[in-house]
Amino acid sequence: MDLFLPRRVNHYRPSLKVGSIVKVDRFEVARCSSMYKITDHPFLIRFISPTIIDEVITGAHEINLQS
After folding, report:
1. Which of 2, 49, 51, 64 is most buried, taking the most CB atoms under 10 A from its CB?
2. Is the pTM of this model over 0.85?
3. How far apart are CA 46 and CA 5, in angstroms?
4. Number of structural domains the chain divides into
């Protein structure tokens, strides 16, 4: 178990805004455990201490939230 997860969630939450497009750097990809699985996808993205999330602003396309 990652004891720093709550701190990471609070750290990265402001970077994840509805409708924004972001670039994520320095993360881990791991297999999803069957316990607490919320998707059918076999992998998950794990934010780690050096993870960087930057909003893409220039030339970004608008995301239609109705689709």
Report:
1. 51
2. no
3. 10
4. 1
